[in-house]
Design brief:
With 75 residues, this protein is mainly beta. The chain has a domain at 24-70. 9% of the residues lie in helices and 19% in strands. The chain is built from one helix and four strands; from the N terminus they run E-E-H-E-E. It has one helix at residues 47-53; strands at residues 24-26, 35-38, 56-59, 68-70. The strands form two sheets. A two-stranded antiparallel sheet has the order 1-4. Strands 2-3 form a two-stranded antiparallel sheet. The radius of gyration is 19 Å and the shape is rod-shaped.
């Protein structure tokens, strides 16, 4: 049983009434894009530069392509 109890769950885990939803923040590694963009030489470029000039695109490994991560700074 979970540590928090309410009239809905009576202590069972995963209760939407008393379980705190995680706070999400923008991934700073990919600037919230979910992907990283590079030139053929490996230099960082913006999404706009990538689409106008080409290059390499990789899914961000920090946020797994979501563009945001769980903010656990205060837990």
């Amino acid at each position: 049983m979970g540590g928090v109890m309410c009239d809905v769950c009576h202590g069972h885990s995963g209760c939407p009434a008393c379980s705190k939803e995680p706070d999400y923040v923008k991934c700073l590694d990919c600037d919230g894009e979910g992907y990283l963009f590079y030139t053929e030489e490996g230099d960082d470029i913006t999404r706009d530069d990538f689409y106008s000039s080409g290059g390499i695109i990789e899914k961000c490994t920090i946020c797994d392509g979501e563009g945001e991560i769980i903010d656990d700074r205060f837990e």
